Amino acid sequence: MHYIATRADHEAGTLPKEILAEIHEAILTTGYALVSNLVSEETRELLLPTILEDVDIVRADGELTPHEQHTGVGHLQLGLRRYAPYVRADLAANPLIESVVEEVLGDGAWLGFYNGNVNCPGSTSQPLHFDRPYSWRTPEEAEAHGQSWPPPTTTLSCSVALAEITEETGATEIYPGSQRETEVATWTSNRLKDRPDLLAAWGPPGRMEIPAGAVCFRDPRMWHRGVPNHSDKPRAMLGLTYHSALANHWRGRLVHDISAEDSEQIISNPALKLLDEGGVGDGRLVFHASARLAFATDSLHGVNRNVKFVDEEVNHLVDAHSRGGARVGIEE
Ligand SMILES: O=C(O)CCC(=O)C(=O)O
After folding, report:
1. Which domains does the chain have, with CATH numbers?
2. Which atom of ligand 1 is nearest to the CA of 119?
3. pLDDT-derived band of residue 289, with 50, 70 and 90 as boundaries?
4. Could you report the per-residue pLDDT of 72-102, keeping only the tens digit for each?
5. Ligand 1 contacts CB of residue 179 (under 6 A)
6. pTM for the whole thing?
7. Is the pLDDT of residue 325 over 60?
8. First-to-last C-alpha distance (Å) of the chain
9. 241 C-alpha to ligand 1 centroid (Å)
10. Which residue's alpha carbon is at the smallest distance from atom 2 of ligand 1?
11. d(CA 296, ligand 1 centre) in Å
12. Which residues of 101-140 are buried (b: 16+ CB within 10 A; e: fewer)?
């Protein structure tokens, strides 16, 4: 499924209903859908050099980042600048992107991750993996919560190409449809090790090629891996991840085992989420106050941008690996 957004779509602030239904169907079946013409050339030209500069900063000490050590050399989780003029409405609060988010995740979906997925020249292959667990792990659990089996995703990953992403520049390898393989639902690991039978069942793999300014919307449970970038420039893909209103953990997981008190707090205040260290706290993404303008218009699609603004400097390169490029803390 590949749709090219039109000027009329941009004026309407939404993709057409029938296109949204096709995108949804593609995500349910193949696991992904591509929509071109979503992020402007102006935004791409502003952001691309910042990514390249920040790659140089991250590479300067010659050390592998924690994400590289864990997954593969040359694959960076690179924080994006969280201050003006680098936070752009047509990326962080884009009504057409949000129309897809609402279609797939329903009302009240929230932004949980805003980061760069950069594949550097000379990179290696990552282990094949999926990014998210199933939110309901057995047919019985799904049925008890009124969900189908296999259950739908409660997270939508939006991969944005600042420049064209091709096989040559290291387009992500994907196993279309593999998000429907229920055998992995109860696994404690997200890696597909030693299972040639599963690879044969869902292969052969494809590649996630993305034109500049396009977004690949994908079910993060679809198996994939970063592969070598054979070009001489870093491949600048950005990752925005949205979670369904059901997801109560700040990383977007749906935790079933939660006290009535914590649950009430989270329902009454959408800024609050379960934290890693236990308990409930502020789960919003931190941006500098200068970035406010990018989020100034209310979402036309019931999406909670889930951001909080601070006056202190926000170091987008701190905690980029584990915390999406900024800090999440207890409510002040
Ligand atoms: O950047 C890519 O092509 C895929 C990266 C990925 O899956 C990861 O870093 O976990």
Report:
1. 2-323 (2.60.120.620)
2. 1
3. very high
4. 999 998 989 999 999 999 999 999 999 999 9
5. no
6. 0.95
7. no
8. 45
9. 13
10. 226
11. 31
12. bbbbbeeebbbbbbbbbbbbeebebbebebbbbbbbbeee
Ligand 1 close to Cβ of residue 117 (< 6 A): yes
298 in helix, strand or coil?
Answer: coil
State the closest ligand 1 atom to the C-alpha of 237, by its place in the atom list counted from 1.
1
- Taking alpha carbons only, the member of 326, 54, 104 closest to residue 215 is 104
The DSSP output letter for 177 is T
Output the pLDDT for position 217: 98
Any ligand 1 atom below 6 A from CB of 235: no
pLDDT tens column, 37-73: 999 999 999 999 999 999 999 989 889 988 889 899 9
Ligand 1 contact via 135 beta carbon (within 6 Å): no
Q: What b/e readout covers 46-60, taking b as 16+ CB neighbours within 10 angstroms?
A: bbbebbeebbeebee
pLDDT(14) > 80: yes
Determine if ligand 1 sits within 6 Å of the CB of residue 172: yes
pLDDT of residue 319: 53
